[in-house]
Design a protein that fits this description.
about 30 residues, about 0% strand, DUF285, 1 helix, mainly alpha, BspA family leucine-rich repeat surface protein
């Protein structure tokens, strides 16, 4: 269960990073 939560946390962080880079790409 802890491993699943850890993977979910990393997934959310990856999505946040992807969204941030997408916004920056659009801005440029």
């Amino acid at each position: 269960m802890r491993g699943l939560f850890y993977n979910l946390k990393n997934f959310n962080e990856d999505i946040s990073a992807w969204n941030t880079s997408k916004v920056e790409y659009r801005g440029n």
